[in-house]
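Hello forum,

I keep getting stuck at the same step: I have a sequence, I want structure tokens, and every attempt I make locally crashes halfway through. Rather than fight my setup again tonight, could one of you with a working pipeline run this one for me? It's a single chain of 350 residues.
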Amino acid sequence: MKGERCLIVGPCAAESREQVLETAEQLSDVRDRFSAFHFIFRAGVWKPRTRPDSFQGAGEAALGWLQEVKERFGFEVATEVATPEHVEAAIKAGIDYLWIGARTSANPIAVQAIAAAIADRCAVRPLHCKTANAVRPAPPAGLLIKNPVNADAALWLGNIERLERTGIPVLAVHRGCSHQPCWHMAHEVRLARPDIPMLLDPSHMSGDAAKVPELIKKIDELGLDGAMIEVHAHPEQALSDSEQQITPLAFSRWLLAKSQEPRVNSELNWLRAEIDELDDTLWQTIAARMDVSRRIGAWKKEHHMPPLQPDRYQTMVERISELANERGLSADFALRLYDLIHAESLNQQQ
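Reply #2:
Ran it on my machine without issues. Output:
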């Protein structure tokens, strides 16, 4: 699939037959108008949720709904697997693409078990190859591995290698970490394995449907190979991740407005993305510091203390100088920056 723009779209979860088929029908209309892309329909059958009382997915019964999507609308279909049992059921149902989610990707033992189950079941064996009087199904067309929930490029690369041993094509899916882009991690993986297609998951990266269109622009800016986007016919009724799913209409509008500029795998754009994320983190940290300063100011007023405490200030100046030296920064620069932050902190304490 390298070199082909891939869009894996569909609801976060398969909630009912009606919901799956309605979304697939609307997306088939979109696909028919944008033939330049390789469309795959996605829906989670088993959902690894944080809380046990939340929607955990419709389970194996939903695989039949995906089979119906294939038959009625001609989509290849994809679903998430987290155990060897999931692999067995999905391959038996003829699911074309299997993806491993971020939580499972954080556990290399689980990924290894999934890879072993795929290889044992049918990987790289010919269609209808008989072993022990059983008919081997065709292997999946591809395996997708999301980055771990923690920003661990080495683990992500290791998981790619584990799946590659099945002999089935592997695609990386960059979904960020806890609604943060983590561009540095993706950049490291892209540099290490430029031969592996990388897709963007703007739905999980943002956690907010309103932010998805802006993030999708990164596909062209960074020379990525496509996207995995949560699209639901009625996001407001979704049983999981309702706040980050977009409608098929919103998705088609993005395709219409999409830049037609050639893709450029620009190293400068990757580095700028890293800078932008660091700047966001920097300002979030400064804002959080000012919030603590206001709370300190309230405590000082209650205890009749002046905002400026010279001894504390001197201690901080010495600490900042040491930290700057440890990190290869100019102590003069660090102290000038700290003086600005400290002055604003005193203002916040008034």
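The chain has two domains: 6-264, 269-349. If your local run keeps crashing, start a new thread with the error log.
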